[in-house]
Specification:
The protein has about 220 residues and is mainly α. The chain is about 50% helix and about 10% strand. It has 2 domains: about 100 residues, Winged helix-like DNA-binding domain superfamily/Winged helix DNA-binding domain (Arc Repressor Mutant, subunit A), CATH 1.10.10; about 90 residues, no CATH class.
Length: about 220
C-alpha cells in the first residue's frame, strides 16, 4: 500500500498528474467541438491544418493525431462535405493528394475559440517561473518522443535549423532566431511554429546539447 513514507515511483505519480490534466483537456476539447458542431477528432484536424498552407496527406494527419488511417479518412471526408476542408493535387504526382483547410474551416475554428478552457486557466494560475519551467519540461518530453519516433517531428524551436540557443549574454533574451534575425527568451520558445524548418538529425542533437548546457535555470529536485 502506498503511504507517505513509501510512495509509488515519481514516474508513476507524474503520469498520474498528466492523466488528470489530460482529463481537463478532453473536457475542453468536447466543449469546443460542441460549439462548432464537430466532434473532437474533426476539430483536431482543423487545428492541425490551420497554419499549414501546403496541407498534409491523410496518412500524415493520422500519424500526427495518433488515430487510425480509416478514422482520419472518415473525418476528412465529413469535413470536406461540410466545406471545411478541400483536397488539392500535389504538383508532379497525380496520385498524391493533400488536404487543406478552407476559409469556412478557419471561420469554424474562430467560432470555437471563445474564452479560456479549464486547462488554460490552470496554466494561467501558475506564476511566471513555473510556467517557464513547465514549458521547457514539455519541450524536453516532446523532443524525446519525436527522437524515438513515437510522434512526428514537431515544429519546435529546438529542432529548427534557424534556432541558435544561448547566442546572447542577455539572460532575458538569450536565444536567437536566424530566420527573423531577432533575440528571444525562454518563455518565447515555440512548440508549433509556422516558419519552422526541421534541422537534420545531427544538427538537432547538437542544438539540443547547446540548449541544455546553456540553461541558466535547470530544473532541480526539491530538496525540502
Amino acid at each position: 500500500m502506498e503511504t507517505p513514507n513509501a510512495p509509488t515511483s515519481i514516474n508513476h505519480r507524474i503520469l498520474e498528474g498528466l492523466t488528470r490534466v489530460a482529463t481537463a483537456m478532453r473536457i475542453d476539447e468536447w466543449d469546443r467541438a460542441k460549439a462548432t458542431g464537430l466532434n473532437p477528432t474533426q476539430l483536431a484536424i482543423l487545428d492541425l491544418l490551420e497554419g499549414r498552407a501546403g496541407g498534409l496527406g491523410v496518412k500524415d494527419i493520422a500519424v500526427h493525431l495518433g488515430v487510425s488511417q480509416p478514422t482520419a479518412t472518415d473525418s476528412v471526408g465529413a469535413l470536406e462535405r461540410k466545406g471545411l476542408l478541400a483536397k488539392k493535387a500535389v504538383e508532379g504526382d497525380r496520385r498524391a493528394v493533400r488536404v487543406v483547410v478552407t476559409a469556412e474551416g478557419l471561420s469554424v475554428l474562430s467560432s470555437g475559440s471563445q474564452g479560456a478552457g479549464l486547462a488554460e486557466r490552470a496554466v494561467d494560475a501558475l506564476d511566471p517561473v513555473r510556467q517557464q519551467h513547465l514549458l521547457t519540461t514539455l519541450v524536453a518530453m516532446i523532443r524525446h518522443l519525436q527522437e524515438i519516433d513515437a510522434i512526428p517531428i514537431q515544429r519546435m524551436c529546438v529542432g529548427c535549423r534557424h534556432f541558435a540557443p544561448y547566442a546572447h549574454s542577455d539572460a532575458a533574451q538569450p536565444h536567437h532566431c536566424n530566420l527573423v534575425d531577432a533575440a528571444f527568451g525562454q518563455r518565447d520558445l515555440r512548440v508549433d511554429c509556422r516558419e519552422h524548418e526541421t534541422a537534420d538529425p545531427q544538427s538537432r542533437a547538437a542544438t539540443w546539447d547547446r540548449f541544455l548546457q546553456g540553461s541558466d535555470q535547470p530544473l532541480q529536485a526539491n530538496q525540502g
